[in-house]
Design a protein that fits this description.
Mean pLDDT: 93
Strand content: 15-25%
Helix content: 40-55%
Oligomer: single chain
Largest sheet: 5 strands, parallel
Shape: globular
Low-confidence stretches: none
Structural class: alpha/beta
Distance between the termini: 13 Å
Number of helices: 5
Number of strands: 5
Order of helices and strands: EHEHEHEHEH
Length: about 120
C-alpha cells in the first residue's frame, strides 16, 4: 500500500481524489495549504505527492522547490492542476514536477496515472 499526499484547496476535488485513491487501496494524507503540504511531505515522507498548482498563499511551483530542498529522497511530485493550456505541461515538467495530471481528472485514467507516477 502506498501513502499519497494530496495538496488541494478545493474540497470537492480533494474528496474525489481521496475516494479514488482509497478505493484503490492507497492511504492518503491531506493538506489544504501549501505550507501544510510541505510540512507533511517532510514529516511523513509519503510515496507520492499530488499537488495543485494554484493554492492559497503560494503556488505549487515555489512549494515544489521547498519539498525538493527539504526531502532528500527522490519523492515523486505530480502537478494536479486545472492549468491545461498549451505549454502548461512543459512548464510544470521543466520546473521539476515528475508528472502532470489535469483537472477535472478522468476517473478511469487517474488510477493508471497514479500507478505510473509511483513506479
Amino acid at each position: 500500500m502506498s501513502v499519497i499526499l494530496i495538496v488541494e484547496d478545493n474540497e470537492k476535488n480533494m474528496k474525489l481524489v481521496r475516494d479514488i485513491l482509497q478505493h484503490k487501496g492507497h492511504a492518503t494524507l491531506e493538506a489544504v495549504t501549501g505550507g501544510e503540504g510541505v510540512r507533511l511531505a517532510v514529516e511523513q515522507r509519503p510515496d507520492l505527492v499530488l499537488m495543485d498548482i494554484q493554492l492559497p498563499e503560494r503556488d505549487g511551483f515555489s512549494l515544489l522547490q521547498d519539498i525538493r530542498r527539504e526531502v532528500p529522497t527522490s519523492l515523486p511530485v505530480v502537478a494536479l492542476t486545472a492549468h491545461a493550456m498549451a505549454g502548461d505541461r512543459e512548464r510544470a515538467i521543466g520546473a521539476g514536477f515528475d508528472g502532470y495530471i489535469t483537472k477535472p481528472i478522468d476517473i478511469r485514467a487517474f488510477p493508471g496515472q497514479v500507478a505510473e507516477a509511483l513506479s
